């Protein structure tokens, strides 16, 4: 080996530092895990040792990955969720937020009862990095205070209202919509009123049903008070956020909040044989319909199912519908399949329209592939995603109230060349980045690890109390100065008036 080769290897080994990483991913919705699963794999591929604590056991023999199954083979994660969201109305959005907090309690109970978790905690391992999902539970955050590691947050959604305070993001409901409503950044007066109320309500739910409950759990079962010596959440050095300004409404973010929307998207593969034959053999193109991984076909309202079948029957396109059960009244141009490789399907050039519930992973894949979307949002951030994408040409319908004519006209509009061009333009904007979402995430993870949490990326607003942040003390001081000045001026005027009055009285007496 010559000197140049030896020098090159020395540089490579010097720059390749293997980190010991713990990933805490408690959420019971598999879509949340699937967002960042490729990130864990890529960290392992780059030589880091990753331990994943999750409800979804998948990494059996993946190099450099150890998996801790929360469930111990008992209740499956999806069984903790109320699965039928199809019949919810507007008021249900407020209940969904409460239900989100209640699901967090179920996660805490799963942690408490898990023998695998108990054994893992007894190992008392130390880590260089702890990566944790920030969502609807605090019960596992005690580990952040037990380890002197660099902490990194992941969010599989856009910013939740209660997360802004930890990173110093500006939060103003006058133009920043909450995730639980169907608004974008162009709101009417009444919409701003409701957005403000939902923002305040979500803060209340977080404080009393997520934060306090989670802290009590942490104190009881981990012996860690999350607030003693400073809130553990304020010690998170970096947040990787599953959003991108091209399809979500633009908003200001602190330097330690990094957008990595689309991080789960891989290079599409060719469709499997029979499916490829159907798609490529459709002369007028294909309409692909899927309601995601959480909503099942069995809970789809029967009246609406028949309406879709009737509308599909008059179309020239082939319709491929992801449907878990048997459907006997299918027209000739409609077929169902229990499972479809969604990204591979969406990126096929003969797919002309995607009918979706509006989940974030699904919409990101459609944006990436440049496919027009008809959205049928049902719960959580799906309404929010639909509202944002309507500005780029998508159409959103209310499943409970839409009729055949509205559905047919919407499909026809989205099948036009103009709609296809809008989708392709959005795809170009979304994909045009200096680094891929994955490379961006890896860069910043290794950056904050290298610089011991990179505290210089944090804004000082996180150290301010609310009255300081809102300048209430400054406003109060200035009002006091103005009031004191006004009082002093009035006092002087009264004295002057009194003196002038005495002089005028004395003058009259002399006369």
Structure description:
Helix 12 links the parallel strand 12 and strand 13. The protein is 45% helix and 12% strand. Helix 3 packs parallel to helix 7 and helix 11 packs across helix 14. It is an alpha/beta fold. The protein has 17 helices and 13 strands. Its EC number is 2.4.1.17. It catalyses: glucuronate acceptor + UDP-alpha-D-glucuronate = acceptor beta-D-glucuronoside + UDP + H(+). It holds the Pfam family UDPGT. It is a single-pass membrane protein.
Number of strands: 13
Q: Class of the largest domain in CATH? A: Alpha Beta
Low-confidence stretches: 6-15
Which percent range fits the helix content?
40-55%
Strand order of the largest sheet: 3-2-1-4-5-6-7
How far the N terminus sits from the C terminus, by CA atoms, comes to 121 Å
The CATH superfamily label of the largest domain reads: Glycogen Phosphorylase B
Category by helix and strand content:
alpha/beta
Which sequence of SSEs, written as H and E, runs from N to C?
Answer: HEHEEHHEHEHHEEHEHEEHEHEHEHHHHH
Helix count, DSSP H or I runs of 4 or more residues = 17
Second-tier CATH architecture of the largest domain: 3-Layer(aba) Sandwich
Largest sheet: 7 strands, parallel
Q: What is the mean predicted local confidence, pLDDT?
A: 89
Organism: Phyllotreta striolata (Striped flea beetle)
Membrane topology: Single-pass membrane protein
Subcellular location: Membrane
Protein name: UDP-glucuronosyltransferase
